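Re: that chain you flagged

S.,

Sorry for the slow reply, it's been a week of failed gels. I finally had a moment to sit down with the sequence you sent. For the record, here it is as I used it:
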Amino acid sequence: MGRYESRREEEQRHVSVVPAEVLPGGARAVTGTPRAAAAELAPRARLWPSLVAVYRAQLSRARVARIPLLFVATFQSVGILIMMRGVVDGGHEAEAVVAGSAVLVVAFVALNLLAQYFGQLRASGGLDHYATLPVPPAAVVLGAAGAYASFTVPGTLVTAVFGCVLFGLPLTHLWVLAAVIPLAGAALSGLGAAFGLLAPRPELATVLGQLGMSAALLLGVLPPDRMPEAVRFARDLLPSTYGVEAVARTFGPHPDWAFVLGDLAVCAAVGVVSLAVATWAYRRAAVR
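Prediction finished late last night. Pasting the structure tokens below so you have them in one place:
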């Protein structure tokens, strides 16, 4: 019995002199070792690869659900063209109607649908999923906005071609839509995303999106020459107005491309600002 106790005391002495570096809970085991360096988090993903990944995911997810709504947006714009054909004969008024109806498809998707999407995403806790991913907030906003804007291309082209045929306008310079759709879409998508992310409830986000789309309808489709001065001032504050003006200017026999580029530059500047606001709104909503 005495021999067993002396052997146990000797083992305890050997254990008591174990260095702190090899203990799992020791301070030195945590710092200054290759294992601790390997446990560090990986760097955040870069903006462009993250944006492409979010864009593809949003495009595949919304493809089935948004096609019927895109049909509604196109049908709505075509119906407005047919209705205005009984009021407007031609000239500058017809150019404004056709250009406004084409850009209205972009406004319907970018303002209305995107505001609803981000409003529902915030209410359902979907932002928490994106917040756990190592992607920049700008990639989430730009990827979703780009995916939704992509759905507007067929409807905008169909509306513009139908309007030109209906009112007898030339189709020569409709290629300008290749610049108008992304630039006006960026400006309106940023506003739509900000509406959805800043609204306290998804119902309010839906209302804000529909109000913005209605403003684009009333101020963009109706000829500006017949509007009061106060309404014209409100029209100048709407980002889609400059996309409408850029398209309408190309219907003339000799378009003034300097003014067209100026309108596109305004759309681009507003797009940068509105997407920056939407990114800030995303950061604000994700941390709450």
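What I noticed first: The chain is about 80% helix and 0% strand.

Talk soon,
D.
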